[in-house]
Amino acid sequence: MIDLEIRIAAFTWLEDQVKIYGGILPRNILQTGFIYKNDRVPLVAPNGIFTPKIMELPLTITSISDGPYDDRVESDYILYKYRGKDPNHRDNVGLRKAMENNIPLIYIKSIMRNKYLLEWPAYIINDLKNELTFKVAFDDMMYINNESYNISEDPNPRRAYITSSVRKRLHQKSFRERVLHAYKTQCSLCRLKHKELLDAAHIIPDSEPDSQPTVDNGISLCKIHHSAYDNFFIGISPDYKIIVRKDILEEIDGPMLQHGFKDLHNISIQLPDIEKNKPNKNFLDIKYQKFMKA
Predict the structure, then answer these.
(1) Which CATH number fits domain 2-179: 2.30.280, 2.60.40, 1.10.150, 2.40.50?
(2) Helix count (H) and strand count (E) of the chain?
């Protein structure tokens, strides 16, 4: 019972931190953690499977970008690698016990240095010993400790639906943060710097099979230019030039059309400093050909 109380206290504390930091938390906040009665409860440590000193079983599992383990997000679950290759390592045993007892965890995803996305409650739903991997699914807080059923290969459609929603949310938040960071948090067309008004626009939409969740498939755009790009009011050529549609150039309207669109024609977009983060020219060409047809 005390174990569950600590977990619920952690969930409540995280809700407050998300309100403060907007959903992406810095590592130092997670390292410091919160106070439960007279004990400090941190949420992260160097190892990915973390059990605070006052607890017997793991509280958090962390996936590190470019880390040593191949953790993957699938359609209705997450594949989380064992610590090392020994199934009987105490961390792996701890997650196995968490699975057997339907114990909720916190899933932490590193999206870049010192920035983390968190989702909870997470549950271990299967142990794939031959693959040295656990399957992780998510649920709603309202169901914590309300149900008891066989967790192995959980057939619960609610968890599958919630996990699918979490997967999309993790992708969207991670993609946005990495793209905006690459572009120094400004629109690559008009240089607007207010983060609340910026989007990470996909070049190849993520609904298409060839889309990649990588920074080179994204461009930082303000909401107006994002909509204009998606609806082919403007195009971006493979040599990074902004091309305004001919009928828009010929249209007579107010200052927004003039300064927000016409004045950008044939100007180069602002590019990331790091070469690998620059828009993929093949992706740009695919989108640009559609713009030309439109």
Answers:
(1) 2.30.280
(2) 8, 14
Q: What is the pLDDT of residue 1?
A: 74
- Give me 143's structure tokens: 């169901």
Is 286 exposed, middle or buried (CB count within 10 Å of its CB: 0-12, 13-18, 19+)?
Answer: middle
Tokens 């196995």 belong to residue: 96
CA-wise closest residue to 58 among 20, 13, 93: 93
Q: Which residues of 24-63 are buried (b: 16+ CB within 10 A; e: fewer)?
A: bbeeebbeebbebeeeebbbbeeebbbbbeebebbbbbbb
Closest C-alpha to 214, from 204, 222, 224, 223? 204
Closest CA to 43 of 82, 9, 86: 9
Q: What is the mean predicted confidence (pLDDT) over 196-220?
A: 94
CA–CA gap between residue 80 and residue 82 (Å, rounded): 7
Confidence label for 65 from pLDDT (cuts 50, 70 and 90): low
Residue-level pLDDT at 230: 97
- For residue 225, what are the CA distances in angstroms to 198, 222, 242, 257? 9, 5, 11, 11
Residue type, 40: R
Give start-end residues of each CATH 2.30.280 domain in the chain.
Answer: 2-179
pLDDT digits (tens, 9 = 90+) for 215-248: 999 999 999 999 999 999 999 999 999 999 999 9
Per-residue model confidence (pLDDT) at position 149: 44
